[in-house]
Specification:
Blueprint lengths: L1 E3 L12 H11 L61 E3 L8 E2 L5 E5 L5 H11 L11 H5 L15 E9 L7 E9 L10 E8 L10 H12 L7 E7 L3 E9 L3 H9 L9 H14 L6 E8 L10 H11 L5 E6 L7 H10 L4 E3 L3 H10 L1 H5 L1 E12 L4 E6 L20 E4 L3 E10 L12 H5 L6 E10 L7 E8 L10 H16 L10 H10 L8 H22 L1
Parallel strand pairs: 7-8, 7-10, 10-11, 11-12
Antiparallel strand pairs: 1-2, 3-14, 4-13, 5-6, 6-16, 8-9, 13-15, 13-17, 14-16, 17-18
Helix pairs in contact: 4-5, 4-9, 7-8, 12-13, 12-14, 13-14
């Protein structure tokens, strides 16, 4: 885990026009203060939560058309001058996956990942005028942020497997195998009754416009989706925990909203006892064969009680055995503990999202509500066996902290990721075919091994999963044909996934991007655009442009 202590925190100012002019006049004669990457760009005009001169908060504007619903805030070239604020954001170390020789390790095993928090967190950095720390960029979460149009399953399994192999834009001799999993899609009315516990951090660290006020907006959005058969419990914690609202039916929205609206920040952060209370309340209101889930909304700054990530993971992992899952919703900047947020959601059989604006809240808890709450398959593991007759080397793109031992694949006691209703999961392998130049030296006995197999398959994909509430896994298998096509001929889903992976790899330093530059990544993003009802792909193109500009400035400053 790394502690990024030199990143300027987001700066919020309450200035009158005289002060603005005075500061501008003084700072014009002074050198710019040092900052992380290119510094904080002046985008405060887009911060709808901030008021000027102590004025009341501006009314929330009408929702934009769907086509631009997720357009990022504008990024300006004028820099703000402000005192440096120490940043204590924490991220888990994320080394790139190593290249493997098929002759030595022909099998690769990993757990699926449905988290998307890294994408929104990276967006926050870019919109604030700085490149993200490399460890904040998890490639699989960038790729899986987008909803893909994979065909829905038609058989008895709750999801289907789709593969496509294309020529790699990263290495001239390589191929990219995209593996897509599409879960069955339940309509909202088909969801079982939900028992939800809102666990809200109201400590002093949450007293920022992008923290508790945004949490309240997020919970209001979810409350509006509730049905009469659903129920909500609200617990807050700061120096201590408080049961603000006992289990309340979803048809009593006014009472739930009143409780949410009264939330105020103050105090230290005693997260351990609050988590225990949340599980106790969830157990009391437990719905058999229903959705039983805690939604933890916090910046992750636990400083009282059990505060280490490992201790929290152990507690959450033990509690999940009772059938109660944990979803984490991350907020804020400066002291944000993403390391903890992502890992305890994984341990709690839930998902992790980072909420940087109201539109992201709508994406997670309105447009994708069923996939966020309703699980259709548990402990989903993927195992890929590569054919030594056709593949010499491979590497898994991302999924660094999801790798499993090969023997874990058949072990039903080993926990893995869950997949929600309508959710899609995408994984990418880069392979070097036999006879082509790769990253590694040829092994002494590789040629003899390569000659022993058939040549009509690149790999064989196996997926294990459990139906919700069951303890025995089921198996799906599918071969990957030894056929590839140019990237330009690939379907829109594959082109979008590879554009997203290229963007993420570039933000991580571009070690495996070869000669692929930002201009090409921008073209890939534009050419991958298809149906985009919520403007996600349009926003992605804009983020690539911002990253390209900031990367160029970094090179110029070196």
């Amino acid at each position: 885990m790394k502690n990024y202590s030199n990143i300027p925190a987001r700066k919020h100012f309450l200035l009158n026009i005289t002060t603005v002019l005075t500061v501008a006049a003084l700072t014009a004669c002074q050198p710019a203060s040092p900052s992380y990457e290119s510094g904080m760009q002046k985008n405060s005009a887009a911060k709808k939560d901030l008021a000027l001169d102590g004025a009341a908060e501006k009314p929330i504007p009408a929702e934009a058309p769907a086509a631009v619903a997720y357009s990022p805030a504008a990024v300006y070239d004028v820099q703000e001058t402000a005192p440096h604020v120490t940043n204590t954001e924490r991220y888990q170390k994320q080394p790139d996956q190593p290249v493997k020789a098929v002759a030595q390790e022909p099998v690769s095993t990993f757990s699926i990942d449905v988290d998307t928090g890294s994408y929104a967190n990276v967006r926050r950095f870019l919109n604030d005028g700085g490149l993200p720390p490399e460890d904040a960029v998890r490639i699989e979460e960038i790729v899986n942020y987008f909803p893909y149009n994979y065909p829905l399953p038609t058989g008895t399994h709750p999801f289907a497997i789709h593969t496509q192999t294309v020529d790699s834009p990263w290495q001239p001799e390589a191929k990219l195998i995209k593996i897509g999993i599409q879960a069955q899609d339940l309509a909202k009315k088909e969801l079982p009754p939900a028992n939800l516990v809102f666990l809200v951090d109201v400590s002093g660290s949450m007293d920022e416009p992008d923290k508790l006020p945004l949490v309240k907006k997020t919970l209001r959005i979810l409350t509006e989706q509730l049905r009469p058969q659903d129920k909500v419990t609200l617990i807050t914690y700061a120096s201590g925990e408080e049961l603000v609202l006992p289990p309340t039916s979803g048809d009593n929205k006014d009472e739930i909203l009143r409780a949410i609206n009264k939330l105020q920040a103050g105090g230290s952060t005693a997260g351990e006892s609050a988590l225990k209370m949340a599980y106790e309340q969830a157990q009391k209101a437990y719905v058999k064969n229903g959705i039983n889930r805690i939604l933890l909304a916090t910046d992750g700054d636990f400083n009282v009680g059990v505060s280490s990530t490992d201790a929290l993971k152990s507690m959450v992992a033990e509690k999940r055995k009772s059938g109660i899952s944990l979803t984490t919703l991350g907020f804020g900047t400066g002291n944000y503990n993403e390391d903890m947020m992502e890992q305890i959601a994984d341990a709690g059989d839930g998902n992790y999202s980072y909420i940087d604006n109201e539109k992201e809240a709508k994406k997670v808890l309105q447009h994708q509500l069923t996939s966020t709450l309703a699980t259709v398959a548990q402990d989903v593991k993927i195992q890929v066996e590569f054919n030594p007759a056709t593949v010499k080397e491979y590497r898994l793109v991302g999924y660094t902290n999801r790798t499993l031992r090969n023997e874990d694949f058949n072990n039903d006691k080993v926990d893995a990721g869950d997949i929600g209703s309508g959710h899609s999961v995408t994984a990418i392998y880069e392979i070097i075919p036999q006879g082509k130049q790769g990253w590694l030296n040829d092994s002494r006995y590789q040629k003899a091994l390569a000659a022993s197999g058939g040549k009509n398959e690149y790999a064989f994909v196996k997926v294990r999963y459990k139906l919700p509430g069951q303890s025995t896994s089921k198996l799906i298998e599918q071969a990957v044909p030894a056929v590839s096509i140019p990237l330009a001929q690939a379907d829109e889903d594959t082109r979008l996934a590879l554009a997203a992976a290229s963007y993420a790899q570039a933000l991580r330093g571009g070690e495996y991007n070869g000669k692929l530059d930002w201009d090409t990544i921008e073209q890939m993003a534009k050419q991958a655009k298809g149906k985009d009802p919520f403007g996600l792909q349009e926003e992605f193109v804009e983020l690539v442009k911002i990253a390209k500009s900031l990367s160029s400035k970094r090179v110029q400053e070196q």
